[in-house]
Structures are given as structure tokens and as C-alpha cells.
Design brief:
This protein has 16 helices and no strands. By secondary structure, it is an all-alpha fold. The N and C termini lie far apart (73 Å). It comes from Selaginella moellendorffii (Spikemoss).
Amino acid sequence: MYGKCKSLEDARLVFERLHGKNLVTWNTMISVYAHGDRPEEALSIYNAMGEQYIQPDHITFTSVLAACGSIGVLQNGKRIHGHVKVFRMEDHASVATGLVKMYSQCGSVGDAREVFETMNRDLVAWNTMIAGYAQHGYTEQAVELFHKMDVIPDEVTFVSLLDACGHGGLVTDSWYYFRSMLQLGVSPTIQHFGCMVSLLGKVGKLDQAEKLILSMKAFRVEANAVVWKMFLDACKTHGNMEKGARAAAEVLRLESGDSFPYVVLANICSTTEEPEPQ
């Protein structure tokens, strides 16, 4: 109860007062910390659990690996991976996927791929590995892996794929995958549109970016301030005052107290003004 209410101190107090703690009790406390932005404490509880000779299960390792990924220290993750092997939990789907995600978060995509290749892969596993490549800008590997999928991709898959294409500046490929997603019957979300707008803005295709934003209502998706700010920032980068003014108006409509649009428009003005004759 306390964990769900985010009262971590109260949860810890109740935990410490319990006598005869069992595996469920330890797992609950580890999970509370791992998913409550306190990953170091999650590892501490896990270590204390080992000192009490409580044998971990797949639930334990799923939470502990999430904590290791949040911390981002590869040494911690490798140590827990060693424990996974000792207790023969590497064949459990949630643990194997947790290892892939942990290694990716720690920047070791090679280790992540090694685990991925030896596991029984479901959609979550494919998505996790593609996301790992996208996170670190490995566009070619993400795209290659996508084409090897033996399960039907979902909206999560396409977010990572479009993100990867964005890192690589692959405009044509991004449009192809965006349209493929629609053909598969996957409804685009704000994340998909955000990836596309970010890429189109980055490469200076402002007309396409603006048209895409305006088309979002047809997909029952409302353009939020984040998307308009992406576009506005692209207008600043490419010195387009006309489109920047329209984007700024939309940001102010959604967030009237935000000073960001005024700052960006001022920057566009300062960079596009003609120099005075000498």
C-alpha cells in the first residue's frame, strides 16, 4: 500500500518492523525502490536479502535488473547477471528481457544483443532490443533487426524504429515505415508524430513537418505543446520566421504562460535581420 502511494519511507519502516520476512516481502520492497526512482536502495535491499539466505526468483531479478539499468553502471549489471546464471533464471522471459534492457541502458548493446540472440524472443524482447539500438543511435542495426522480426510489430516497435531513423537522418525510410505502420493497422500516437516532426525539422523539411502536424487531427491525435515546440525550434534552426510565428502562436494557445516562444522568435529575428549598410 505505502509503495503504491509513493511513501517509500513509510514502506521501509513497515518492512523493517516485519518479523520472518519471506520472498514476497523482499520482492515487494525491492520493487518499490526499483520503480520509485530509488534504484540504489533496491540494490541494497537485494544484497541484504542475500545475506539472509533468501533465494531470489524471476520477480526479484526483474526488479533488480531495472534498478541496475536506472543506475547505468555496467559492473552492477554484470554482477546481477552472474547471479541470474547461478539461479538458472536466464530462460525466464521477463528476466532475459530485463537483461537486454539493462545492458542497453548501461551502453553495452553488444552484451544486450548477445543475450537477445540466446533467448526465446517475444514481441517485448524484439521491441527492447530495437529500442536499445535506437537509444544509442545505431540506426543501421535497428533497421536490420526490424526486418528480421518474426512477430507482428506494434506501436512500440515503430516508435523505436522512427527514433532510430531520426538519429540517422533517414527521411525517406521514416516515411516508408510511417506508412507501413498505417497499412498494418497500427494507429499513430503523439510519439510517432513527434519522431517524424523532429526528423523533418532537423533536416529542414519544414513544409512536410507543418503539414504532418496539421494532419494529426485526422488520426484523432491532438498536437500538443511539445510537438509545436519541436517545430518552432526547427524554424529557429533554419531561420524561418513565418512558420516560426505560426508555431509560436500554437504553443501560446496551449501554454499561455510559456516564455519559450518569445525567446525563440527573438532569436530568429536576430539571426535573420539584414546587416545595416556601413
